User: Fold this.
Amino acid sequence: MDIIDRLAEIFKEFPGIGERQAKRFVYFLMARNSAYSENLVELIKDLKKETAQCKECFRFFIVSKNERVCDICANANTDSSVLMIVEKDSDLESIRKSRVYHGKYFVLGGLVPIVEKTTKSRVRILELQEKIKREKELKEIILAFSISPQGDHTDTYVRQQLKDICDKSSIKISSLGKGLSTGTELEYSDNDTLKNALKNRQ
Amino acid sequence: MDIIDRLAEIFKEFPGIGERQAKRFVYFLMARNSAYSENLVELIKDLKKETAQCKECFRFFIVSKNERVCDICANANTDSSVLMIVEKDSDLESIRKSRVYHGKYFVLGGLVPIVEKTTKSRVRILELQEKIKREKELKEIILAFSISPQGDHTDTYVRQQLKDICDKSSIKISSLGKGLSTGTELEYSDNDTLKNALKNRQ
Amino acid sequence: MDIIDRLAEIFKEFPGIGERQAKRFVYFLMARNSAYSENLVELIKDLKKETAQCKECFRFFIVSKNERVCDICANANTDSSVLMIVEKDSDLESIRKSRVYHGKYFVLGGLVPIVEKTTKSRVRILELQEKIKREKELKEIILAFSISPQGDHTDTYVRQQLKDICDKSSIKISSLGKGLSTGTELEYSDNDTLKNALKNRQ
Amino acid sequence: MDIIDRLAEIFKEFPGIGERQAKRFVYFLMARNSAYSENLVELIKDLKKETAQCKECFRFFIVSKNERVCDICANANTDSSVLMIVEKDSDLESIRKSRVYHGKYFVLGGLVPIVEKTTKSRVRILELQEKIKREKELKEIILAFSISPQGDHTDTYVRQQLKDICDKSSIKISSLGKGLSTGTELEYSDNDTLKNALKNRQ
Assistant:
């Protein structure tokens, strides 16, 4: 494989990028001047240098002076009584931007595949268990996974793994509410959504 | 306007049909043989003859021997303790097909526009009030409108209009649950959906 | 099948209409008042009464006083030296609206399927042969079919069937030019289009 | 702007990438291990080192031992009697892959905007003129631009700029054929495409 194909292979791993667009990225980089490429290279290097993974919630954050934990975890105003478990950083950022939640987060690092034996090595379930034991003010854990077979499976799995710890410390486990979302038209809703909307009526 | 344009104008009112497709429908009918057109004409006439609007729930149903009310309203197995208010027939059919609800229905006949003075003439709110007074076994009314500004406005409007009657008879009013629906990805959720999902967590 | 399903079956044959939308059409008709349905029924009947198939070009046209041929065929300004063969009425209308062609037309009534034995019964090839023999001023026949395997097959088939008649009367047979169409981006063009664009460069 | 926003800004310039996906790319890079980022950085650097712009056709190519010209230009089997002018590298690669053309290429480096005074500085028209003077075997120049207002404008502009040189050396100038492309349906064709298809019939 020549350099063009090798770089295209790397770009193909970027989220949402197929073979054709990966190739276009390479041609785009070739056509741009050296300054652009050098700038890109420096920023990618800086990204690794200037960011770190929070030791508490495992989200990536911008380090200013060698902090161990991120600004959300370090902020005294963050509500320590509630911990939301999300799949990945971009879910966390999306919820953060919505300003509807002011508690702590924990990034699980993935969903649990339905057929999977080596689960523990893939998601941070041990780290989550340790985290919960450390959080003395915690009263509720909110599971915030996408509504899909894998999201549902992860919800069930995490509840099982946390049951004992939470029972012992009287921590409640909840999941984000299911039902009709903005723009949903009843006429085109699937059975599960209708079932959840009916069950969760209020 | 010639006959082609006049018929296209009518087809343009069909749900989801634009000018171009309306014209195609006319050419399609011209190209099909007379038997097809005659069959279509007969079925449209029969539709009006063989269907009627239920005097109880206002849905359209197939009449066999001059019934006043539809099969759902007439069926002794239908749960009379609960009444679901929907916008239109196709919403009702969608919920019916999902087999998650076994109570009665009421077709409101539309949503209430946000800026609207002559509301009463547009939706069947008076008919709904009368209906509720007649339903002696009724314990709960479920408002089942789409999640949109107009759907929300209709929800608020209907609650106001039914408040007194329901208070008097101790009938509960609920709305379909809001939250994450099937396939929703947290990363791409709007603020309202996240807010509802968080509020309705369980 | 009840009347709702029977009418939906008919609507499903309309161009571009699937099962779901066919059903919506039926609910739409039920919900509209009788006047709307009656109007629709009358217009469909009128369409058959007020239109006729031109005896010369086989397009459908609006009849005013029992004419045998359509306005294009009857118009003395129509260029009789050129005859464009199209698949269907809506192709003819599209070309007519573009005002780039001022000759006569002939509606073949379909494309010739690639695997097909009873071709003659499906498209009006015999009628076309008769038509050409009658047209004394004809100098060129333009085949105007879509660029697809079936369109190409029909092009080849019609050329074969007309060869002898056209050779005898020195009538030229041409096909619409192939190449880049508006909006085509070279980067995303298929091989056949590039081949045709290169071959037909000028 | 922090490092996340700065890198997202760079990714936003990638072809087809909006703000949201640019941000996702950054989170993706943060979440991947250092080895992945380092690999990406090395390949981007190598791309600049291992590729060069051909001094003859201006396409980018992979250099093996300091060549001045690319493999197409250097290949004795390339047909020197014909030169195809394309907008950009990815157009060239698309035509090359189609294996319908075996002549030389010239990458113009862009299209000529319709309202533009400093045209010469933007596209390689001077380099093209020089190139043509050098090519002693050249008999035909093929202009291969997309069918769009800008593509058409560039076609006209390049023809004007090359007219004298080509007239002097009896070099023919042609453009890729316009007409129906694969999949085009007559019913939905725009006027220009129909006009071109009719004009270029054969």
